[in-house]
Write a structure and sequence with these properties.
This protein is α+β, with helices and mostly antiparallel strands and 206 residues long. The chain has one domain. It is built from five helices and eight strands. It has helices at residues 2-28, 44-63, 69-72, 103-107, 179-185; strands spanning 31-35, 84-86, 92-98, 119-127, 132-135, 138-143, 155-160, 166-169. Strands 1, 2, 3, 4, 5, 6, 7 and 8 form an eight-stranded antiparallel beta sheet that branches. β7 (155-160) and β8 (166-169) form a beta hairpin. α1 (2-28) crosses α5 (179-185). The radius of gyration is 16 Å and the shape is globular. Bound molecules: heme C. Heme C binds next to α1, β3, β4, β6 and β7.
Length: 206
């Protein structure tokens, strides 16, 4: 049983890698015109400094999608201290932002479902082996009204490429391309309402 679960997660991981690679090609065309030295050891304050210098560029690029959240999310609460490398998001550096409705996201209380209107966004960037900094996709989840999509506990998933192209939206255009998001988030531990939360090492709050 445990083995089957692991196989399933690995399978989903592979599907995700394939999609990330596709997005990676887009990254290549979305250079931020920034080079850094010693990319392999990028973390902590240095990763934060890189992020601060490209943050605005990321926002502008996502805004090409026309989705209103893209213009607003970077002013929301960011519960991570610094960007961190996410293995399940194509080894990109990511940040999380939560809107006011999702206030419990920041303090990582678990046990009760998030209210309708909760939105959590990740922006992302990648760094190549040669130190070139690339824009990465934006990932979003939003809690919709009860009955919106029972198989994802009513969360809507959306992914926007760095050129502003919307890859897919749950129950909307390209829905099949974001189904793998829910498949993996459905495996999150009980009592976390399909969310995974931040690694403890980068949390600003407990
Ligand atoms: C293979 C598993 C997996 C897949 C597929 C996946 N995620 Fe996640 N997601 C995670 C994990 C683990 C975290 C928390 C740690 C991290 O960011 O690496 C997370 C965190 C998030 C968060 C922050 C909220 C939270 O859960 O803490 C958002 C938003 C998000 N993912 C959106 C998406 C979207 C949109 C997709 C599809 C395009 C997607 N994810 C696909 C595993 C996955």
């Amino acid at each position: 049983m445990v083995f089957r679960w692991i196989t399933c997660v690995v399978g989903l991981g592979m599907a995700y890698v394939a999609t990330s690679l596709d997005a990676q090609e887009k990254d290549t065309r979305s250079s931020t015109h920034m080079m850094i030295s010693d990319p392999a050891s990028l973390k902590g304050d240095r990763a934060e400094a890189v992020y601060q210098s490209i943050k605005d560029t990321l926002r502008q690029q996502y805004m090409n999608s026309g989705d209103p959240v893209t213009a607003a999310f970077q002013a929301w609460r960011r519960p991570n201290r610094e960007p961190y490398r996410s293995g399940v998001h194509g080894q990109r550096f990511v940040n999380h932002y939560a809107n006011d409705v999702a206030q419990d996201y920041g303090v990582f209380k678990s046990g009760k479902p998030f209210p309708e209107g909760s939105i959590i966004v990740k922006d992302s960037f990648a760094v190549t082996e040669t130190g070139e900094v690339m824009s990465g996709p934006m990932f979003l989840i939003e809690k919709k009204e009860k009955g919106f999509n029972p198989s994802s506990k009513d969360w809507l998933f959306m992914m926007i490429k760095p050129d502003g192209e919307i890859v897919g939206i749950t129950n909307g255009p390209g829905a099949s391309k974001v189904r793998f998001c829910a498949n993996c988030h459905n495996q999150a531990p009980d009592g976390q309402d399909q969310l995974y939360f931040l690694p403890k090492s980068v949390r600003r709050y407990n």
